[in-house]
## 1
Amino acid sequence: MIGHPAYPVDPWCLVETRVDPAVLASAESLFALSNGHVGWRGNLDEGEPHGLPGSYLNGVFEAYPLAPAAPGCGVPEADQRMVGVTDGKIVRLLVDDQPFDLRYGRLHGHRRSLDPRTGVLQREVEWTAPSGRTVRVRSWRLVSLTQRAIGAVAYEVEPVDGEARITVQSELLANQPAPEPRNDPQNDPPAEPVLVAEEHAAEGTRLRLVHRTARSGLRVAVAAEHRVSGPDGTATAVEAEPDLARLTVTAPVGAGQVLRLEKLVAHGWSAARSRPAVRAQVDAALAAAAASGWPGLLEEQRAYLEEFWARADVEVDGDAEIQQAVRVGLFHVLQAGARGEERAVPARGLTGPGDRGHCSYASELYVLHVLTYTAPAAVAQALRWRHHTLPAALRRAAGLGLAGAALPSRTIDGAECAGSWPGGPAALHVNADVAEAVVRYTAATDDLLFDREIGLELLVHTARLWLSLGHHDPAGVFHLDGVTGPDEYAAVADDNLFTNLMAQQNLRAAADAAERNADRAVALGVDDEETAAWRDAALHLALPYDDLLGVHQQADRFTGHQVWDFEATPADRYPLAEHYPPLQLHRRQVVQQADLVLALYLRGEAFAAAQKARDFAYYEALTVRDSPLSACGQAVLAAETGHTALAYDYLAECLLVDPASPDLAEGLPTAVPAGGWIAVVAGLGGMRHHGDTLSFAPRLPDRLGRLAFTLCFQRRVLRVEVVAGSAEYTLLEGPDLDLWHHGEPFTASRQAPERLAIPPAAEPLPVVQPYGRRPVRRRWSADRETVHEE
Amino acid sequence: MIGHPAYPVDPWCLVETRVDPAVLASAESLFALSNGHVGWRGNLDEGEPHGLPGSYLNGVFEAYPLAPAAPGCGVPEADQRMVGVTDGKIVRLLVDDQPFDLRYGRLHGHRRSLDPRTGVLQREVEWTAPSGRTVRVRSWRLVSLTQRAIGAVAYEVEPVDGEARITVQSELLANQPAPEPRNDPQNDPPAEPVLVAEEHAAEGTRLRLVHRTARSGLRVAVAAEHRVSGPDGTATAVEAEPDLARLTVTAPVGAGQVLRLEKLVAHGWSAARSRPAVRAQVDAALAAAAASGWPGLLEEQRAYLEEFWARADVEVDGDAEIQQAVRVGLFHVLQAGARGEERAVPARGLTGPGDRGHCSYASELYVLHVLTYTAPAAVAQALRWRHHTLPAALRRAAGLGLAGAALPSRTIDGAECAGSWPGGPAALHVNADVAEAVVRYTAATDDLLFDREIGLELLVHTARLWLSLGHHDPAGVFHLDGVTGPDEYAAVADDNLFTNLMAQQNLRAAADAAERNADRAVALGVDDEETAAWRDAALHLALPYDDLLGVHQQADRFTGHQVWDFEATPADRYPLAEHYPPLQLHRRQVVQQADLVLALYLRGEAFAAAQKARDFAYYEALTVRDSPLSACGQAVLAAETGHTALAYDYLAECLLVDPASPDLAEGLPTAVPAGGWIAVVAGLGGMRHHGDTLSFAPRLPDRLGRLAFTLCFQRRVLRVEVVAGSAEYTLLEGPDLDLWHHGEPFTASRQAPERLAIPPAAEPLPVVQPYGRRPVRRRWSADRETVHEE
């Protein structure tokens, strides 16, 4: 999945065979471990060299005052940025008093591998110190999916060619200096430390640091417990100061002898609780982890993941690199959401500080979309977090002069962090995107309690927003004017089709949920007049259409704009927004990322097949994919409209990463591999889920011999296996399920798999990309090696 | 003109009879003296108390780095702000060592008056010091219209009730502390002094200070010469330090004796010249002024203004307050432009630091509009400045991906200072507005040299901008998408009618000018293909129209937007932009200021009369006048469509000022009284100037018995006198002139005045303003006193 010789292809594991300083930070993002609550970047155990060191706790941020671009209300007063917390994963090594550092001495072997089946990052290295002594170092690291406060490290040192004095320093380190994130041109944070020390302690083999963030006032505690085994003469000592707590182990270790350290790290934070309470919280987590012990944590982790993969594995025969990428990608999607528990899913999960740690609509549209069918409990948790933020969203809507809730376009704790009007407040589609996730989750799980306690209220308040935002024209058509859709190159337009279609679903779903939960709806002030108004607005929502071209318009008047001059745009001027002023972009037909095309997938039931093909062809020729989120929707629609090879190219674009990307260095944008899963399952697999109906229309590209995927749906587990001419549907758990295959209904049952033939593909409408923006072709080659060609 | 008891009505002079601290700063703006090069705010001679002290030199600014709201090109890197220069008008007084300060002792009388016929601000005050000694102080101040570097003060002190030791301190003071301007929410300038001292000198009765602005590096020199007369024992001394030079005069002055000081102050600045050169420049100016002496300066000033008023006076019988306001307002318009000489006309002239001293399109559309018919030489100078800035505008257009020139929406030296995209770069209409001023000036003066040297190039480069900005649709219609017109509540729209109509005129004028000056046009690369393309684009420019409503659209889709809920908007929520977020405003039908209606005036020949009436009625009901520029266009169209009383209300809104306005405190927005002149002459007088044709359609409101105005046109001077039933046209200078009166042609000649009857008015189409936004009715009352009623 990584186009770099140090990262060989493996069907399951992410493997690294040497350390390339040029891609170190990207590797740290890809080797990051997280459970959605605690995140440890894949830094080397010894802390240095590093690209960007970091440990994160979901929800811990610092506030930075914003200079508003223009006076006026509706503009946030402060930005929020996820900040690194006390780093508990550091284990430093000295060999005969020489620090173990890959930049010095000689490295004989280096191998790291992250196995999505065990959830453990394993490392083996053999190193000769400048003094000449050679040691073998092995480490294992995990962030527990079963004990959410816990990260753990096991660390072994073994001299190879004679006795050495080995010193191991296990640290908790706060306010670690780190390079500034790249994506902050305007508001450079102040240089002073983010964490203010409150308490430091070290006793026996136990360490603890407590801090508070300077402005946001969040209390963070990190504590560690150790277990040391080594030869006779092994001695330990501890020390603590405000930003550092350290256990030092020293031992004379003979050749073939092993010094082993097991380190359990507990993390806790709170905006409200006192220092003793937060301290007690990490002590308790540490006690529980110690009771499990390192072997227990390993086994819990393996069992958790075995269960996950049994419900969620994706098998791809014929393209080992994609096989690896889809599994590693799905593992990161799981890591981002697994144990968030009423916190946001940040854009980069907890893999790095990119996007300032904000959560945006992409979490709902991509990450929660995938988790709905693979780890649905995580979806309920993330949407509970959105539910918690409703009071802020209600206040924000009122500030914007709107009814209902206006969820923020970028946030950590629920407060809007996007300052600029065209991109921030106008991007109201986030509300319908959250509603989409609610609708999808509820329909996919039949979680009636969630529907009643969480879903209803989210749907009602967002529906109210749309009704107050829009207006009827004299002909009775309902318009939503002056909004920005996902395509940020077309800010502030009237009747953005994506927004209107998503709002339409939102309005109807709110009315349906109110009918299902009539008593609760009454308590929210919903009456028949209101649900009727929602249904009426939904029925009459404007869907701009160009009669001459026979295609939908991305927004009113869009197809009347001048087409961007793609031929005159050199390759090095992409992404366009970094090289052309808004005045150039926003009055042209040029699409940053799938916008209308994404609606063709998410609201596919609202379009005739021939219309989808025309719309896809029209927008395909305008879409430059300046956002990595774009390829997912294009992959799905390419597959649906018969462009299977193109779909596969886009699928690969979602899943394969460029380690030289400065963006990847700041964390993995989880929505992108999530989009890769969608490209596989909804693209090649042709899965569609509208209302209560689950349907498939699988079709493989020539390259693939077999595609199989497993998913959860309405308390069933369903496995779909696709080969060239047919697909087999196997119900692994649950009662019979009515499904559709290429437009024909059938029933899947646990009795026997259902094998159905795939009808021949019709001739597709030709499509073309903008000049110079064709995706990399992913071709079949004789020896099945990956070939990248333009 | 000032609704405050301390400012009585006078047919010519602005008079102040007491000092009200609450309106002191506004009075300083209104009593400001300027010649367009030097500006002295109307501060009290003794410097304090003050609202906002200041002396300005046109073009002297400091640069402040801007934090861009969003990354991307096309955004300026620095803001420019007009800064106060060394203040030469200060004359402090001590009576028996007690400082003369209105806040202490007792004031028996205070009167200031600014006479537009003499250009002198005169002051008389009688004051008893806390010690009990009473003095009479008289001062006269002018900023010379004939010697542009010169300001001058005459100052007399006379003890009333016994001998006093009088001390007068005449100062040059740099880096005077001043309150921050109100309108800078985002970029507070640093607190350090703006002017860096370079030289200070005092010898005999002569003072001199030389400074440089810290970042923009402009050298500023101010020097003063004095003439002192007083009783025996009068002694003088001088001193100088980096930021202060002072002449001190002391004398024992008996009752009835007078100590008199005459102070001549010369100002100079340069971005390029050396310290000795700038110093020589002010020394030379001072020598010339000294040769004229105070009486000479007074006489030159009077003669200059006598000539001006002979060509420009406006007489209004029946409303003394309006009579005063239109004259004082026109005097300020003259002051803003008279001697700018290849510098900008800032939005506040040189009356205060408001709008940061920037020049915007309002200078061309309002101020130069008026000067074209009253002081045309000043217009040529201001447009020569725009011509000087073309190289920067050509670079800026290239940065925006456009051909031709993109003149800045706000600037001091030609560099764009507006950072925010919707309001700044998208407000491209400034280019057509400058072209409008070129077309108007050229047609009104037949200045062929200007046409050839200046006008042609401005027109060609702006026409090129429009051609590159626009595109033809498949039907051949030419569109200008994604721009912002004068109405800032409707940012970034397609085919803004105002912009399109002004661009249409721009394109045609460029083609015409190229044909008139074929050789110069060839040198600019203009060929027949290009002029044909301009004419074609002009011919096919989109003019959005709503067939259902039978009105033009302010921009494409505008009439499809929801109408703002005016009934639900309390009076204290205006101006709307300070209380509602852009998301609320920009998707609604609500008009900040006349936009389409202004086009109905400026491009009136493009509309049928009945269409204008329908369009005016439609937009009148949506226009909230949140900009003081709005009422002018509304006055003109109200008059044209038969709403004479409404026109008069709007005329009064342009001309009468509110001294409590914090905005007025920072300087007089010159475009507003200029709009008042337009409301009188084009509104009540019905003057239209399209192409070479000058026409009138005068009609008086009931209140006025007579209206007379004089103007310059094509080397003639024409006087128009309107009474209830007829108008008389008198050609005061120049050959016969073909004119139109209420649609009928006639010829004015110097032989005899032409008196023509005014036809009866037709029944107008009813109009209504938004709820709560009706202008103050200016009613007739029995004793002809002004009555303000809601």
## 2
Amino acid sequence: MTSTPEDEPGDTEFSLETYRREGLISPPGAEPAAHDGTGRVQLSFTVEDKEAPATQRTVRVPPGVSVFDSASWNGIAIDSTCGGHGTCHKCKVRVSPVTPVTRHDARTFSPAELDVGWRLACLVQATRDHDVVVPPLVTRPKAATVGVGRQVILRPAVQKRYVELTEPTLEDQRSDLARLLDAIDDLEPVPDLHALRRLPKVLREADFKVTAVIVDEALVDVEPGDTTATRYAIAFDLGTTTVVATLLDLVTGTPVGVASMLNKQQPFGADVISRISATMLDPAALGRLQVAASQTLATLAEQVCREGGVDPAQVYEAALAGNATMTALLLGIDPEPLGVAPFVQTTATPPAVLASEVGLELHPGARLALFPALGAYVGGDIVAGMLATGMDRDKRVRLFIDVGTNCEIVLSDGERILSTAAPAGPAFEGGAIRCGMRAADGAIEVVKLGDDVELGVIGDVEPRGLCGSGLVDAVAELVKAGLLDATGRFATDEVAKEIAPTLADRLTYIGQERVFVLHRERPDSDPAESVVLSQRDVRELQFAKAAISTGWTLLMEQLGLEHGDLQQVLLAGSFGSYLSAASAVRIGLVPQLPVLRIVAAGNVAGEGAKMALLSIRERAGALALLEEVTYVELSDRPDFNDRFVDLLAFPT
Amino acid sequence: MTSTPEDEPGDTEFSLETYRREGLISPPGAEPAAHDGTGRVQLSFTVEDKEAPATQRTVRVPPGVSVFDSASWNGIAIDSTCGGHGTCHKCKVRVSPVTPVTRHDARTFSPAELDVGWRLACLVQATRDHDVVVPPLVTRPKAATVGVGRQVILRPAVQKRYVELTEPTLEDQRSDLARLLDAIDDLEPVPDLHALRRLPKVLREADFKVTAVIVDEALVDVEPGDTTATRYAIAFDLGTTTVVATLLDLVTGTPVGVASMLNKQQPFGADVISRISATMLDPAALGRLQVAASQTLATLAEQVCREGGVDPAQVYEAALAGNATMTALLLGIDPEPLGVAPFVQTTATPPAVLASEVGLELHPGARLALFPALGAYVGGDIVAGMLATGMDRDKRVRLFIDVGTNCEIVLSDGERILSTAAPAGPAFEGGAIRCGMRAADGAIEVVKLGDDVELGVIGDVEPRGLCGSGLVDAVAELVKAGLLDATGRFATDEVAKEIAPTLADRLTYIGQERVFVLHRERPDSDPAESVVLSQRDVRELQFAKAAISTGWTLLMEQLGLEHGDLQQVLLAGSFGSYLSAASAVRIGLVPQLPVLRIVAAGNVAGEGAKMALLSIRERAGALALLEEVTYVELSDRPDFNDRFVDLLAFPT
């Protein structure tokens, strides 16, 4: 991760709606306190520690938020095993002034304790300023750093509880399930039929010493003995091109296996539109695309389990971030309405399904959680990316761009968040480019022009073509050298000889078309057999970058922002990670900013999927984004074409 | 249904715990009002009517219960489509004194309306005495009479909503699901994957005029056009011997098809113990028993659908009442712990499953709701029976007896409810009886002794044997005639000739054993070729009836009740329906009471299953019974054998 002076975490103050959507105004059904959601209340935390002096920390939150959540979102740990659902009775704090006593408080504390302000933090709604004393932690919560510097306190949906039960007698004929659940004081899962079928046998064979396996609200299994040390989950980034799987050890929060491969849907077309078209032309294609996606995931799941030395039956959950089309195809949902105006999804919030329903052979009760989507072209991958980059948690003015055939753009001014999609076309993936190719061995990925041409080539082999980052570099360097003018036209031979005499002979023609030779075997090689950038390639790139910059320009106008207001630009996706920030600025793909403000964010979709597996609170945060982020449809904007034409030129 | 002077409905006052278990203290998570659950508050309802003068009605309920529930349980209808879940905003009433304003109230009423006490009845907790004005009903709720005179207001888990949606545009890109659910204001279902897959196609083919099909919390389908008039469900009574299916039209609450057949598990044994034994002897038997049960249900489902002229795909739900063993076997759960001490169930509350998971080919999203059980031998069939007979709603002192190989007994003194099971053995089903047979053609079901023997025979054919009710009649009549003494011994020839000269020649011997000839072709027929009652048969019956009467005797002792305190005895099950009340009293199978207090209740298990389909509130009531009813285990009671020996004799 590139670290820049601007890369400090922002404030984490955020809106009441965030909390409400995340179900964090607990308990559900309770009447809200008398406030209108505006303003803030102040909580002054005194955090005690067994081995160190207490520390002080003051936070401001919207009225009505629970003390537990206020602490949690501000990185103040309070004991809890239920994650703030009012069931574990462990999140004890002392509040002043005292707040009403709930029935859970009455069960947890003595009258004397209640008098001095002891309460369960998850049930105290902060409706005014409070002092809160947090006692020393009984168990230090584990945390993991994921995404763009996000610190996540581990609270996976997958939970295990080891219990040693008393055996039934004629005096104690509780059912096997009641006996098990009575011994688990902080969770109230509903059993899967599979778990019920295993329960009587496993209990008796294991002398009533068993481990309950819970995923979210479901009891998915009982295992003999103590298996709490083995809990795994797989995060999938289901890209149109590349699919990545990460096997996570949920006990430690660390990855134990990573694998990636091309999406097996490739034969149906390179981009989402061609795959949607395939389903419109052939009624059998949807089924075949579904199988192809399933097989891709299954192959990767097998690989990461092998790599991690993990039995697939110990993988109890998976999370998947994919764009709306990939998600629909995986679920066997007709994607046609995504592909034609007015571009409508079947659902923005696909329900969790059994992993087996999409062909994954993990634990039979394993669930697959799917990221929600903002729109047909700002899908679950982008929501995951927003989660990983903390787009809603950070008060800085930030622009998030995922560059690809379909380019997704998110802009936050610290209060409001807008998103849109721009159809950039295939140029960045080497499509429609004369010598274009994917970022694979032999692809030119870096271009520097000085007295001569310096190339960076993937795999250190003879250059075979030009990938997206090389294309951007080449154009940017040619603009800088004056060999391309602001309108995107190559210089004449005369001008070239004058301003760049050592490069001028590379400007030549293939047939009628002007080209710049990037790589040739010998100076006298036939340009048609060399790696060149053609006039038409430059036009393709101009169209692509104009589509993207029109997107962020319109969003910035909507929020009244100038380029200089942006504190950070995040370039997401694998392409974004390889792009030269300086080149991106030079061609106008990103706003005109100091390059230190432009950060490659990496595979943020995969990171978001990991966060969802590590923390149910982060998962709720993804859902909250659907309310917080406004989706802006560009395709019917009357000002789109004007801006687009303006932005075809390179910045001068 | 036999109507008796005692058969008036009792009070419907019941405990706070009832409400709490049924989730009726709404909203969940809300803090309870300041009360300790004792005492009652009084609600004075003024029920307005468009066409008639308003009526007055006063009810007393535990503090904390919602006004809506207080009304509903007392038969006062208030408009509602969500069933009191706070979502439909239709249950408008005027309360005085006024109560706090919830956010739902604030959205529903104007400030002026709030000032004069308008509130949503489901959100008003009655914590003190109130006057409540109920405005005239907008829609008159439909009700059906089921069970033992129970009037059920129709609110099935299966709901349909016809909607005409606006088509999506670039200005309105809501997802298909959001568009659909936004148009349904009173329910918030989660979609099945099947429904999601159908959604985009059905919406567009039906010009966005569709019917949403909801089962409980799940959106199971969308259907083109308006299909609200077709909603069906099947109630199953899965007996060890006989299985009954009733197809219900959920729109009218009426049955449209009924079918019954023998349980296909019969080859594995006649009673639950032999079927459990089968699974212990052969590991493959569980699977085969599961298939046999599934096939039985599937065959009946097909029959009732054919009879009712209903497409199975229009059946969206099924409910099943069965004993604990039948339920376990159907779900493929090992029944062994049910069959051996300490007699433990895997779960008392089996989760709803997809009907397809038990082999039923109904609508692909159809659910099967399973009745909860009180214990290994007081199963879901009895809970269903208690629901159908209103055991928890009726303030009378009542005894419920389901006579069978395993006999279940429930006793209520109007406050407390106890239940137990008594192992009666197979005598009542004709097992272990010399001329015993099932209640089928040729079975003697009625016996009267006067100067001669009068027989009632099933099917009006030549008598072939003796079924349970005939057995009880025969013994009772012989006791009455003095031909059997109180200890169960046949009279000597001398005594017989003296007290019953016209019958004495029927008292004879087969080998060494004393028999009474019930039916012979001619007076000189060989007794061994006639239908007789043997001394050993009498002993079998004595053991069976002593087991049962020990059960209710111990329960009555526990509640401090005498025979005369009982206001009603309900005889459940098909056998109970045919039993002569007078004979049952005479042999001591039931307490010594006027016969008018003894009521044949019919197939109450099946009736309970129907109620669960017609009303989600009744279904919640079944679950509440688990908390309200105390299960008494008799097998380890030191006083059991003493009582049993005492009760072998016939009452004198």
